Amino acid sequence: MLEISGITKSFGTRRVLNDVTFSVSPGRLTGFVGGNGAGKTTTMRVILGLLASDAGRVTFDGTPLTASDRRAFGYMPEERGLYPKMKVAEQLIYLARLHGLSHDRAQRNANRLLESLDLDERAHDPIEDLSLGNQQRAQIAAALVHEPTTLILDEPFSGLDPIAVDSVVGVLGEYAAGGVPVLFSSHQLDIVERLCDDLVIIAGGEVRAAGGREQLRAQHSTNRFELLFTGDAGWLRETEGVTVLDFDGGYALFDVDTAATAQRVLRRAVDEGAVTTFTPKHPSLAEIFKEVIA
């Protein structure tokens, strides 16, 4: 497990990280979200040893990270950093070899990633000849080609079309399934919600929420319900303890003041018609994000 504990960092008099604490578990995809300037990239650079923190520590399985540990990590910075005139496959093999892989193993890994990321037809093109989306996929492949023990990816989905996003999601899921801790940042909250197992929300250099995706959704849930039945839900408007948010015939979205009120509504709906849906509505990641950074 990768653990970030009490990380504090200032640039001059400006504190950019304040007691940042969270963990990235093996085999789980952890989404790291926050607005511009929230502290995501700075945190990732501290994890990788590219920046020194003023306080706190980063450990892996309880042991402080060493330079050797970090060399085994896979890192994709937000800025593209590949050699523009080097061919894609050649570059991946070169990077894998720098990490100590044999040529045959490096080539196998490169070929597999190029196929998984739909880049096999561009394998012998220079990086500079690729579209921005394909350059992004090549950058992701570069972070994976050496069989990393941990993945740290800064905005991996930036510039990708929906098909490319699906291929990247599939590849990252495979690595997580193999037991690799994966931390990735993204502004695309719909992708984070679909992909992540765990979530860390940072704002103003401080972690505002962290935990399992469903755990956080449950924690931030209101007493909101969705009802769909064969009757007419107009009576909900006059029901004590109910606030109707949306209504259309037999469909209603509403808040209740107590669980007992919700049960009262359900009993009335059953009396009025056949109930198809009566379910609590958990907030989306975007709604949780807005709530915790407010």
Can you describe this structure?
With 294 residues, the protein is α/β, with parallel strands linked by helices. It folds into two domains: 217 residues, P-loop containing nucleotide triphosphate hydrolases (Rossmann fold); 72 residues, 2-Layer Sandwich (Alpha-Beta Plaits). The chain is 35% helix and 29% strand. The chain has ten helices and 14 strands. It has a six-stranded mixed beta sheet, sandwiched between helices. Strands 2-1-4-5 form a four-stranded antiparallel beta sheet, with helices on one face. The longest helix is centred in the middle third of the chain and has 16 residues. The protein is elongated. The two termini are 30 Å apart. The mean pLDDT is 91.
- Rg, please? 24 Å
- Mean pLDDT across residues: 91
Terminal Cα span: 30 Å
Shape: elongated
According to CATH, the homologous superfamily of the largest domain is P-loop containing nucleotide triphosphate hydrolases
Provide the CATH top-level class of the largest domain.
Alpha Beta
Low-confidence stretches: none
Instruction: Work out the number of β strands.
Output: 14
Strand content: 25-35%
Looking at the structure, the CATH topology of the largest domain is: Rossmann fold
Order of helices and strands: EEEHEEHEHHHEHEHEEHEEEHEH
- Contiguous helical run count: 10
Helical content, roughly? 25-40%
- Largest beta sheet, briefly? 6 strands, mixed
Number of domain units = 2
Coarse structural class: alpha/beta
Strands in their spatial order, largest beta sheet: 6-7-8-3-9-10
